[in-house]
Amino acid sequence: MGRLIEGQWSTQWYDPDDDGRFVRPSTVFRDRIEAGGRFAPEAGRYHLYVSLACPWAHRTLIARVLKGLDDVISVTVVDPYMGDDGWTFQDDDPDPIHGHTFLREVYTSADSAYTGRVTVPALWDRQEGTIVNNESREILRMLDHGFAGLATRDLDLCPPDLHDEVERILDAIYEPINNGVYRAGFAETQQAYDEAVGEVFEALDQWDAHLADHRYLCGSRMTEADICLFTTLLRFDPVYVSHFKCNVRRIADYPHLSGYLRDIYQTPGVAATCSIAHIKEHYFRSHPFINPTRIVPVGPALDLDAPHGRA
Ligand SMILES: N[C@@H](CCC(=O)N[C@@H](CS)C(=O)NCC(=O)O)C(=O)O
Fold first, then answer.
1. Is the pTM of this model over 0.90?
2. pLDDT tens-place string over residues 257-272
3. Best residue among 59, 78, 87, 120 to mutate for probing ligand 1, ranked by most atoms within 8 Å of CB
4. Domain containing 74 — which CATH number?
5. What whole-number distance in Å separates Cα of residue 124 and Cα of residue 222?
């Protein structure tokens, strides 16, 4: 793990705030794919660098498959283990564009003086030779709306009539849930941890109640908000409960969130983007300050194919 400082690699972890809270830095590449713009939608032009372990990258993999963009946007999956060199390419899934060994080299190929973390997802443009964007929520929206005419599946994950509600829910789940589990797991003081875990479970309790009478977060249609909640819920019982100490309740203990998790998992195309083995291998092996033995637990037993009862 580490970061680039003016193009030079440094094995530094995140800097907490004065009270030991985890602080997630903002991402740097924030351009957009749009018809008529510098980054126009074109088949074969863009490439996604992802990890199957990462909940943020997983959002973009799900959108790619649900929109039928598999043949339009190519993908490389990095090795689950993130050590001192950061994300590394796998021998059986090498970097097809540059032939690099490390993801950080993709970042310095985009900007030789880049300063920041080397994160997934990152959306690469073959034509301009740069990273278009490395912020998952924005890449998700680009895959959803930026490739009209190229997407082979007719489905809108943020339709105009639900736009404001999708945005509201994306905002509402981000800090307490999506980022909340990280704020708990990477807290460096008891107070920072207590604060984060309290927020995680208050929010989960609230959304479980909401899902008692809504199939999806925004009602009867699956949206970007569901994708963003799903990728955190999928990792919750196998990883966040023990590794990030989010152990007040499991998702399996929630009457509605548990079925909702299986409902999204069983949506055609989604299961193929999920690898519990990859997820566990990444978290338990890559954070020795949390798990010094790097032993990957065997459980928990999960049956994501069990009936979800929510149709
Ligand atoms: N805000 C970013 C966060 C991406 C992110 O933090 N990804 C993690 C993997 S789960 C990563 O690549 N971390 C490497 C590091 O921070 O060194 C997004 O939503 O895309």
1. yes
2. 999 999 999 999 999 9
3. 120
4. 3.40.30.10
5. 27
